[in-house]
Structure formats: structure tokens, C-alpha cells
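Fold this: Protein kinase domain-containing protein
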Amino acid sequence: MSLTLHWNGRTYPFEAPDDARGSEHHDAYVDKRLHKNVHLIRSGMLGGKPTRQLVLKIGYDDEDIAALEKEAKLYRDQLKPLQGKHIPFFFGIFHGQVEDQDAACILLEYCAGGGQMTYPEMNRQIMLAACAIHAVGLMHCALLHRPQHLILSGKSVKIVDFSHAEPHRCVGATPTLYPGMGGDATGCLELVGLEACYGVFSGERIPEARPSRPPSRAADGGPLQVLARRVGGYMTFQ
């Protein structure tokens, strides 16, 4: 795979690693900067009209390039089954030079903000997405203090930016808090923190009815089996 980056009137060739699959070529035109090293681009196949909007994340120094390579590996491996549902699609990592400086970039789905969703449904999807990430053995490490990583995209919520993600294992991949439990929070700190913000302890109005039964610890083989759907403000389990 290869990429030609068109930026500020100049053209920069990039190549994918030798082990990358596919032979397609991307022509990418930078439209605007979204955040620091993140840019909105228009992409098209070689000779085609560049109409597809994607996100280009670029790094220049050794530290930034290593971080992009780490993030690309996560997308290719552990996060692959979550692409398109809970996280953006990943289209590859490329290496080249910009103004005679070594650079690397990754191409990702553009998760445009917008869409309509009730707060309970949005919160439910945030919790499901976070738990799915933990279930594949990763902690995002930036969700609790950077809500911009949670993007309402159409009819779903997607979690972006895995530059700070770390290997992680929490039994059941679900918060141990549930209605009526009481006591101190225990379990995975990231999921418990998210539960406090977006789950049944988020402060939203909760009806008097109690869920039929509390969650049990999930077996290692099915960590998301305890998650079901939110009904009237509750996260119910099955």
C-alpha cells in the first residue's frame, strides 16, 4: 500500500510497511487541522476523485512515530473486532518524509460528530464500548478526563485515540457497581469511574423499580455476557 499526501501545495510520498496487506494507493488531500497532529483529509484511489473523508494522524519525531506504530498495532490486533462498531475503522500506517523530516501517519475513519440519541441510550453505548475495549485486554487510560474521545457518530458512540492505551485485564470487563449494591467501589478503576459518569450512578433520574437480579461475575470466556440494555435509567443484566 502507498499514500500520496497533498498538503499546502506540495506532495509527499508515503509507503506502508512491507507486511501490510493490499496494493491500493491513497491520494490524500489535507483539508483542515482538527487537533494538534490530527487532520481531516479527502481521500481517493489513484486516479479517482478524492471524495471520502478520513482522519490523518501524523507524527514527526521518534517518540511520536513510535506512538503511532504502537497505536497501529493495537488497531490491527486486539482492536480489530471492534472496528466500525465501537471504534473507528483503521486503514493503515504509512512512513515517509515531510519537508525532509521523517514522518509516519495513520488513516482512520472520520467519526463525524452529530446524530440524535437519548441520553440514556448514549450512556449505555458509552459503557458498552468501554467494556468491549476492556474485554479485549486494553485500558484506554484517557476516557475519564478527556470526554472528547467519546464521539456520537450517527446512531452509535465511538471511542477514539488509543495513543495512551495499555494492556489490561479486569475480571468480567464490567463495573462491579450495580443498583442496591452499596459499599465502596471495587473492581476496574476506569470502568467504575465511567459508571459513575455514564452508568446507573451518573445521577440521572432512576425509577423506583429494581432490576430483576444483580450481575454475576462473568467467566473469562464471555466477559460481556453480563451486559444487556439500559431500561428506564437502569443497566440491566442477563
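The first strand starts at residue 2 and ends at 7. DSSP finds three helices and 13 strands in the chain.
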